[in-house]
Fold:
Amino acid sequence: MKHGARNQLTAKVVEIKKGTVMCQVKVEVSTPATMCSVMTLDSLDDLGIKEGDQVNVLAKAVNVLLATE
Structure:
C-alpha cells in the first residue's frame, strides 16, 4: 500500500471500544506505550481489525491511521 505518511510503527491491537458509528482502537507500540486511533465502524469492518492483530500505525500531522497488509 502506498501512502504519504513517513512515521510508521508496528503495533498490536489491545482494545477496541465501539460506539454507534465510531470506534476507538488502542494499540501497544512498545511495552508499555500505547496509542489510539479513532475510525468509523465501517472502516474497522473493512480492515478486519480485531484485538490481538498486528497493524501498522501511520502518523501524519494530527492523524493516527491503522493499516493492515
Remarks:
- The radius of gyration is 11 Å.
- Residues 25 and 37 are 5 Å apart (CA to CA).
- The chain has a mean pLDDT of 89.
